[in-house]
Amino acid sequence: MNILVVDAQGGGIGKQLISSMKQSISSAAIWAVGTNVTATTAMLKAGADQAATGENAVVVAARKADVIVGPVGIVIADSLFGEITPVMAKAIAQSDAKRVFIPFNHCDNIIVGVSSYSTGKLIQEAVEQVRKLCQE
Q1: pLDDT digits over 82-133, tens only?
Q2: In 8-132, at which residue ranges do the beta strands (DSSP E only) sit?
Q3: Residue 62 in contact with residue 95, Cβ under 8 Å?
Q4: For residue 131, which phi and psi values (nearest 5 degrees)?
Q5: ∠ CA 108-110-116 to the nearest 5 degrees?
Q6: DSSP state of 6
Q7: Distance (Å, whole) CA 78 – CA 4
Q8: Which among 66, 64, 44 has a CA at the least distance from the CA of 53?
Q9: For the packed helices 12-24 and 37-45, what is the interaxial angle rounded to 10 degrees?
Q10: 49-91: pLDDT as tens digits
């Protein structure tokens, strides 16, 4: 099972995801793709098995992944302060992988019904969903 974690900016969400998944999903290969080198480095430090940076890395990894995980903004062109290009968003949205999105109200994208959840709780739920997908 190949799990792709995509993150932007400082890579904090990806870092938390990878760290949690490494503890609870031992059978999977966890790949990290950051939209910038800072995000990629953070995810590598968290224990990603492979990592790359940039638009083409997202396109290639999305084709090969079984599961893609990240903030919901990774499928919204120009989100995450412009770090998600239309090509990245399309590659993730059109991938054959199962996708697990963490809902955040950022960058003028408002997701109703999630305001009461902490980041830690959202990460925990995302990891649980990925764990279930790996068991199927």
Answers
A1: 899 999 999 999 999 999 998 876 666 677 776 667 888 888 889 999 998 8
A2: 29-34, 50-53, 67-71, 98-102
A3: yes
A4: -60, -45
A5: 130
A6: E
A7: 20
A8: 44
A9: 20
A10: 999 999 999 999 999 999 999 999 999 999 888 899 999 999 9
The beta-strand segments (E) located in 1-136 are 2-7, 29-34, 50-53, 67-71, 98-102
Q: Note if the pTM is more than 0.85.
A: yes
Enumerate residues 6+ apart whose C-beta is below 8 A from 68.
3, 4, 5, 6, 62, 74, 92, 95, 97, 98, 99, 100
Token readout for 83 is: 């770090």
Of 46, 42, 52, 38, residue with least CA distance to 20? 46
